[in-house]
Amino acid sequence: xxxxxxxxxxxxxxxxxxxxxxxxxxxxxxxxxxxxxxxxxxxxxxxxxxxxxxxxxxxxxxxxxxxxxxxxxxxxxxxxxxxxxxxxxxxxxxxxxxxxxxxxxxxxxxxxxxxxxxxxxxxxxxxxxxxxxxxxxxxxxxxxxxxxxxxxxxxxxxxxxxxxxxxxxxxxxxxxxxxxxxxxxxxxxxxxxxxxxxxxxxxxxxxxxxxxxxxxxxxxxxxxxxxxxxxxxxxxxxxxxxxxxxxxxxxxxxxxxxxxxxxxxxxxxxxxxxxxxxxxxxxxxxxxxxxxxxxxxxxxxxxxxxxxxxxxxxxxxxxxxxxxxxxxxxxxxxxxxxxxxxxxxxxxxxxxxxxxxxxxxxxxxxxxxxxxxxxxxxxxxxxxxxxxxxxxxxxxxxx
Length: 399
Hints:
The chain contains 18 helices and 14 strands. It is of the alpha/beta class. The protein starts with 8 loop residues before the first strand and ends with a strand.
């Protein structure tokens, strides 16, 4: 095993997206992640979206580099096994509804008493405290409460959802940051701690100027479609073949180069447009000028001209565009793994990229209970005891 987190033992008790994504990120960089799943069913993500041989191909991304322990957390003996695992773990990740871990005797008070060095990441819809703590919370609700959903629409039309579970992913990444901070603190103090991440808070943390603008000016920012209010010009512009080019000409010098490239030297030289405030005041005029130019050219022609002029611009990628893009390939973002049936599957590469200790794809996502026997043997449980646990349905071996 390689990676900066080799030697870090992580116990993952979550399911679906937020907790498992955080654990996947640690596993990509060398952590030994033991994923606890319910016998018989496992993580529901195994059956989400498109399936190959009965298992979601998404599973191969979300659970790569992990080991699977099939364990019934509702059984007292299984709870005791978790406590034994936690005694030797560095990190425990869970994303159950607040109170569930405490009901199983697995809350912070119990586990940190057993292992004062343990770091617990707890991800939930609304956090572990506050009047909403007991509400069920999914990413889509958090995205709305965090302020994102209100902004993702054309003015006057229904707010649309970002096409992926962005609230869960943002919460997971905030959780990973918290774990790394807590590990640094533990290095100095020798003690672990609890990291409390609410999905809505992770979204809200990315809302930029939303709150201070409301506080200072009473401004309630609304949806603006493909534009970014208060920053100009940056928008999606229709091209000759009906596709869109995304153009970001909002830097002062970039704006001048953009206007020169589209033949509008008059706007490039206009002193009233020399800074962002002036451009925002006349954004409709500027957008119209850019749109008139793009409508006469294909996306490829637009991008070629703007690239030569040093103006940030791009096309809207589909996954087919991503899979065929040479830059994705050169950066290692298109990786192929071999499945159990011998077929090949493309999966995203590992981010971020570290020069000395990069992450790597060490093993495919596990079958349900694939590592049950190994994990239990590491706890000192005998083969006879493992057989008895299986007979009673407390644990399960590979499906």
